[in-house]
Amino acid sequence: MAENTDGAVNGAAQPQGGAQLNLQRVYIKDASFEAPNAPHIFQQQGQPNIELNLSQRVNQLGDDVFEVVLGATVTCKVEDKTAYLAEVQQAGIFGLSGFDEGAREAILSTYCPNTLFPYARQVVSDLVQNGGFPPFLLQPINFDALYAEQLRRRAEGANQPNQGLNA
């Protein structure tokens, strides 16, 4: 029998010293729901106004292990009264090895939040519906475009002359 030297095991190709990315765990780091004007808000007539705030932070846990936390805060107001406030911090632990610094930053800023977003979306939806309000689904977010905008702003900031105070 011939010896297999191409790195295949049971017909599946195995990476040989290349970059690797793996999702180790997905979890809810924090979640909260408030309906400060209930039960009166349920009888309020008017068009709801919904505001979404997203945040992201990355914590390095080890040499090639990172925690990415995607924060989503949804505030719904009817006229000037808050109907509800739903906050979720959806987190994941990602292993990244063999990537240069630029590629690692791009993955942590785009791929990782894209992976976490459906989980955060579901938690927000469940909180809102369990709070007695009509179902609400967050619209898809283009994290690639947000990262490109962040890079553009960073480049613009680097090209700006120092605008210090003149004495």
UniProtKB/TrEMBL annotation:
Pfam families: SecB
Any one GO MF annotation of this record: unfolded protein binding
Predominant localisation class: cytoplasm
Keywords, ordered alphabetically: Chaperone, Cytoplasm, Protein transport, Translocation, Transport
GO biological process, one term: protein folding
Single GO cellular component term: cytoplasm
Signal peptide, first to last residue: none
Cellular location(s): Cytoplasm
Keyword Chaperone: yes
Known function: One of the proteins required for the normal export of preproteins out of the cell cytoplasm. It is a molecular chaperone that binds to a subset of precursor proteins, maintaining them in a translocation-competent state. It also specifically binds to its receptor SecA.
Assembly information from the UniProt record: Homotetramer, a dimer of dimers. One homotetramer interacts with 1 SecA dimer.
PANTHER family linked: PROTEIN-EXPORT PROTEIN SECB, PTHR36918
Similarity comment text for this entry: Belongs to the SecB family.
Protein name: Protein-export protein SecB
Taxonomic source organism: Dokdonella koreensis DS-123
Chain's gene name: secB
